[in-house]
Amino acid sequence: MYSFFSALCGNNVYVRSNDKMKFKKNRLRLRRDIEKVIKFGKLKKIFDEKGNEIFLVRYYPHEGYSRFTVFVPKKVARKSVWRNRIKRITREAFRQMIKEGKAPNYDIIFIARQNIYQKKTPEIKKIFERFFEKQ
Q1: Euclidean distance between the first and final Cα of the chain, in Å?
Q2: Is 107 exposed, middle or buried (CB count within 10 Å of its CB: 0-12, 13-18, 19+)?
Q3: Given this model, what pLDDT does residue 130 score?
Q4: Is residue 93 within 8 Å of residue 125, measured between CB atoms?
Q5: Helix (H) or strand (E) holding 86
């Protein structure tokens, strides 16, 4: 929290971006929604350019806008730091797709696989774009 006093003193003042709050509605959070996607949704695999499996994806149509969640099993990343990194990178890649209007209107569950480990945000975004063009 940055105070008015620090602004008067000439200290560095940071403006908090409200950009991430716009995407709160795009999170698939409720257990019943997740179970519905698992039960009725289609199952596909996402591969990278080399043919390695990156994600297992379950998706189900949703009216209006897309919602998503990311699962990273302990088999993929043993330490929570790495699991959270994979989740952050995946969320950011999909958030960029939503911002550009390229995301489909689905409820989506991304389940990470072992080969995701060293991927960066732009690579994952390209993989998502290629996958959702086919849908």
Answers
A1: 44
A2: buried
A3: 92
A4: yes
A5: helix 80-100
Question: What is the set of domains in the chain, with CATH numbers?
Answer: 26-134 (3.30.230.10)
Cα(41)–Cα(22) distance, rounded to whole angstroms?
26
What's the whole-number mean pLDDT along residues 30-57?
95
Rounded CA separation 85/30 (Å):
22
Distance of CA 128 to the CA centre of its chain: 10
Query: How many angstroms separate the CA atoms of 54 and 114, rounded?
Result: 7
Q: What is the mean pLDDT of the chain?
A: 85
Q: Which residue's structure tokens are 């890649």?
A: 93
| Distances in whole angstroms, Cα of residue 72 to Cα of each of 76, 81, 101 | 7, 11, 26
Number of H helices, E strands in the chain: 4, 4
Q: Is the pLDDT of residue 1 over 60?
A: no
Q: What is the pLDDT of residue 72?
A: 97
- Residue written as token pair 């620090």: 6
83-123 pLDDT per residue, tens: 999 999 999 999 999 999 888 899 999 999 999 988 999 99
CB 55 within 8 A of CB 72: no
